[in-house]
TrEMBL record:
GO terms of molecular function: transferase activity
Name of the featured protein: Glycosyl transferase
Keyword Isomerase on entry: no
Keyword Transferase (UniProt): yes
Native source species: Iodidimonas muriae
Length: 403
């Protein structure tokens, strides 16, 4: 069958949360279907991967997410009472390309990944292809959370975005055949916000490449000799991640160091902001920036710490850590959407005191692989089985059950 697939960011390479999902969807669906991909590039280094997309797609439209043009779109969105995160993506050429694909390729289904891509299809498919609005997270709630600890102007800004984005999300859900979220919790929340579309709201299950994240692969230890690392992995220009590691370094690490002076808190991830880089000035903090492979940093760590106070959906970094048999210290929000499994031995923290206690307890133990955690991931979060169910939804299953 023929699929029009829209993503807000190029789905290659699969080196961060959304790209892991969009790549695996593209990889799986391309085995049996013709894909026409419309996507955006927001980092110049990603232009080198455009040709790779043709290994999976029959045709490709790639537009540069130009910051200057995006800001102009956002300003217009401000005047038009539109959500700025959607207005930022307005693109005439992408809209025209979608029109062309709809007219000439007549796709059997349209998969829109991320809320902002819905605008390119909205109002164009009255009697045509099946439409799947893969919103992933309730983004309007994320902006509502952002407003909680901001000053007066930023609070107004984020509250405005939350309100208008919720209206947009509900409008998309009403227009399209199915709206899909990353977890049952996100889907349930959205049903309360948009009850008129409740029967069309479902959720999928995230996946992990369990062969890639294999703890038995042999990697050199990247950490300085004589240290015991607790690692955080994530894109370090993303505000929730910045807030998480700053909290740990400022309020947790100094207390843990009193008991375990050899602790190393490793912050591993691309595009660290200046604020994140400055954290490396603290004793016992390593900021790597982009690395060719995160697996050595996870494999040789005593554990993975996810002190996220703002988190939506399912955290890939939690699933990947468990796939490598690692103990996790995490807030409740960081584990939201993941099936409960006591055998994974995750240490759940509600506050700084919990993080301190759990970090010390982790370092008191020998570094060990938790085989039960890996088995749990293999049984419930392997990509291929999950995406076979997802493929059925995209091309015709009409269900509000978990897929």
């Amino acid at each position: 069958m023929t699929l029009l697939y829209l993503t807000h960011r190029i789905p290659y390479p699969p080196n961060k949360g959304d790209k892991i999902s969009t790549f695996n969807m593209m990889r799986h669906l391309s085995k049996s279907h013709d894909i026409h991909l419309g996507t955006f590039i927001d980092a110049d280094e990603d232009w080198q991967y455009v040709e790779k997309l043709h290994d999976y797609c029959k045709s490709v439209c790639v537009e540069k997410l130009d910051k200057k043009r995006g800001m102009m779109g956002a300003i217009k969105g401000l005047l038009r009472h539109e959500p700025l995160s959607v207005a930022y993506y307005k693109n005439k050429r992408m809209s025209q390309w979608v029109d062309h694909i709809l007219a000439h390729e007549k796709p059997d289904a349209i998969l829109m990944y991320s809320g902002c891509t819905g605008q390119f299809v909205y109002g164009k498919t009255a009697a045509g292809p099946r439409t799947i609005f893969n919103a992933e997270d309730v983004d309007s709630e994320k902006f509502r959370s952002y407003a909680e600890d901001k000053n007066r102007f930023k609070k107004w800004f984020f509250q405005r975005e939350a309100r208008l984005l919720r209206d947009y999300e509900c409008r998309m859900a009403k227009a399209f055949d199915q709206t899909v979220f990353i977890s049952e919790a996100e889907a349930a929340l959205f049903r309360t916000l948009c009850p008129e579309s409740a029967e069309k709201i479902t959720h999928r299950t995230q996946g992990v490449d369990v062969d890639y994240f294999d703890p038995d692969l042999d990697f050199a230890d990247p950490y300085p000799e004589g240290t015991r690392a607790i690692v955080f992995v994530g894109a370090m220009d993303y505000w929730p991640n910045i807030k998480a590691v700053t909290w740990y370094v400022d309020e947790v690490l100094p207390q843990v160091q009193k008991r375990h002076p050899d602790i190393l808190f490793a912050i591993v991830g691309m595009s660290p902001t200046d604020a994140v880089r400055r954290l490396a000035e603290h004793p016992g903090v390593l900021v790597t920036g982009s690395v060719p492979d995160v697996r050595p940093y996870v494999q040789h760590a005593w554990g993975v710490c996810l002190p996220l106070t703002i988190a939506r959906g399912i955290q890939n970094k939690a699933l990947e850590a468990m796939a490598m048999g690692k103990r996790i210290i995490a807030t409740k929000d960081a584990l939201a959407g993941i099936r409960p499994c006591p055998e994974t031995k995750a240490l759940v923290a509600q506050n700084s005191a919990d993080l301190i206690a759990h970090s010390c307890a982790l370092l008191d133990e020998d570094k060990a692989q938790i085989k039960e955690a890996r088995r749990f991931i293999i049984d419930h979060y392997g990509w291929d089985a999950n995406l076979s169910n997802y493929e059925t939804l995209v091309f015709g299953q009409n269900s509000s059950e978990r897929i």
